[in-house]
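ok posting inputs for the adenosine-5'-diphosphate job
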Amino acid sequence: MKIRLENISKEYKDVLAVNQLNVDIEDGSLVCLLGPSGCGKSTTLSMIAGLDKPTEGNIYFDGVNVNDVQAEHRDIGMVFQDYALYPHMSVMENIEFPLKMRKWNKKRRLEKVSQVVKVLQIEELLHRKPSKLSGGQQQRVAIARALVKDPKILLLDEPLSNLDAKLRIELRDEIRSLQKKLQITTIFVTHDQEEALSISDKILLLDKGKLQQYSSPKKMYMEPENRFVAGFLGNPPMNFINGILDNKKLFIIETDKKIQVQADYINNFKNYDSGNHLLGIRPEDLILSENKSGVAGTIVSIQTLGKEVHIKFSVENIILKACVSWDHNYAIGDHVDFDIKRIHIFN
Ligand code: ADP
Ligand code: MG
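and the output
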């Protein structure tokens, strides 16, 4: 099912929770709705589900305006952060509940439930009560309950936020492969940029109710359209420095003397005229240079983290962070040179 949001806004008493959102979601794709807490993700999802009405704008499913279609007639499966299982019902009863509401007979219900629980690998749990399940198992049950109706759209609101890190990664990969297998149009709400980067066909990044960028994860990471997008994605975050574009050359101007910087690639170069701009450099785009050609600095800290090492170095009075590999031989106080792979320019 294709989804179109046309100029959707949602205004609460004194908050504009969603501000003129225009988005097309392709049939069979997985879109992550990403952004900081309070940016309007859940509000957007509830409007698509029909649980909330937009103050303004139109929602279309496969070209049909569904503004006045009740939630139960929108053919949607929903999964929430807190699982929302019925505690007094067994797993079986929880999953078959939507089919009971549709007046399916017992035989048909059983057939359908066994199909779904097989896919989610929870056959063993059918007779347990939710309180006897781990968080990961409860969420599988909630997903099974959402999918048992064969919905046209799957909406997940921070479904993994209550799980520990390892399980979160496991289940997100499973949700992604399940979604691909079923080819079901899916909107997945998360505030976790890494989660969004790893499972989406497209990411829709919101801030304060406003769309910041809607593109593939790769494009959003490599070509962020504004400073917010650039700063929200990436860990450790992008370095931001005041700079100047002067006669097609870039300089850092926060330092006492103007330092010219060069890069293999400059993102947004064509969009900006000469003048003061903000420059962004991702830590992994600072590459230790052998031949003293890059930006020169002095190491002020070295932090070793699992597979990578974060080096902070000072260039006069500014501090930049770089990611380097394990096999370096540097120490605090060493002079280093970094070549820059990619610089981003912002307003
Ligand atoms: P997110 O899911 O991204 O954390 P929400 O969509 O829940 O954000 O909320 C967006 C904004 O709308 C927030 O400022 C929130 O306080 C406000 N909001 C959400 N629901 C209501 C409501 N029912 N009444 C008033 N304000 C609300
Ligand atoms: Mg929310």
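notes: Residues 239-346 form a domain with the OB fold (Dihydrolipoamide Acetyltransferase, E2P) fold (CATH 2.40.50.140). The mean pLDDT is 95.
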